[in-house]
Design a protein that fits this description.
The protein is of the alpha/beta class and about 300 residues long. It has helices spanning about 5-25, 40-45, 100-110, 125-135, 145-150, 160-175, 190-200, 200-210, 215, 225-250, 260-265, 280-295; strands at about 60-65, 110-115, 140-145, 180-185, 255.
């Protein structure tokens, strides 16, 4: 055997031994960051790491966007915002808001922000969301849509396609800035239910004449075919909006829709403002806070 042959065999043996050693060590050809072969963790006695949950049930900051309900409108005084009793971020002990339940009273005062605007529609949500993301919140609470149905007439209600496009734009605004922020989406309340409760108050009906949700509340005592059809049209549009909220939210792994809980909640006179018998009272705001907290802290999202 010549010297060249012996040299080649020596290199072959060395290569085989080296490959065996590397194989035992669990190395691979794509670098140290690649996953080890199946079963390697068990062979080495190390437990496999648990995956990080997508949804955090205890976020450390909250921003709210939406309309008059989230501003506590008419809960403390007539035709006036009262953010102190907001279901989302208020500090009132009578409400125990979502932010207070999650962060504590001191934490809520420092790490929760309310960007909702009375009278806002879904078209206003992208701009509100743009303001909210500047705070870098871990959770954004959304309640919008009632004003899209509460127009001067059913013909003036926001088309469902536009409602969808505006909500999708708001979600894109959030995701472009904060891809890991969580979103809680409340369903639109049952406006027909609010009409049926509020029409028992003579004072409430007088306030309604100032222009509160005329598509549903206009001529509140009329029960003829035209009035009934008008109210049913508004009620159906609200259901359509809620379907959009559920569908768009379902496409985002860090979004939770309340499963229709706010829409299904049977507001009674105790839960309605004593000034307009339409917006939530302080007690009504507390009920909204309960629904939100239950949804945010649940291990699994509610089913629509």
């Amino acid at each position: 055997m010549d010297q060249g042959t012996r040299t080649r065999r020596s290199w072959a043996v060395l290569a085989a031994v080296t490959a065996g050693v590397l194989g035992v060590a669990g190395c691979d050809a794509v670098g140290g960051d690649a996953p080890a072969p199946s079963g390697t963790e068990a062979k080495l006695g190390r437990p496999s790491p648990r995956p990080t949950p997508v949804w955090d049930t205890s976020p450390s900051s909250v921003a709210a966007v939406g309309d008059s309900i989230t501003r506590g409108f008419d809960a403390c005084a007539v035709l006036t915002d009262c953010p102190e009793v907001s279901w989302a971020t208020g500090g009132s002990e009578l409400v125990d808001s979502l932010a207070v339940r999650l962060l504590g009273k001191a934490g809520a005062a420092e790490r929760s922000w309310n960007y909702a605007v009375t009278g806002a529609r879904m078209a206003d949500l992208p701009a509100q969301m743009a303001r909210a993301v500047r705070r870098d919140p871990q959770l954004v609470a959304v309640m919008a849509g009632a004003n899209d149905a509460c127009r001067v007439s059913t013909a003036a209600m926001t088309p469902v396609a536009d409602f969808r496009a505006d909500f999708e734009e708001a979600m894109r605004t959030l995701r472009e800035a904060l891809p890991r922020a969580q979103v809680y989406v409340a369903s639109v309340p049952d406006l027909k239910r609010l009409w049926s409760q509020g029409r028992t108050s003579a004072l409430g009906k007088q306030v309604w004449k100032l222009g509160i949700c005329p598509s549903m509340l206009g001529d509140p005592d009329a029960l003829d075919a035209a009035a009934t059809t008008r109210r049913e049209t508004v009620a159906q549009r609200v259901e359509d909006y809620n379907e959009v909220l559920a569908e768009v939210c379902a496409k985002d792994r860090r979004c939770r829709y309340d499963g229709g809980a706010v829409h299904a909640y049977r507001f009674g006179t105790a839960q309605l403002s004593r000034w307009d018998w339409f917006h939530p009272s302080v007690d009504g705001q507390a009920r909204l806070a309960e629904i939100a907290y239950r949804t945010v802290t649940a291990k699994q999202p509610p089913r629509p």
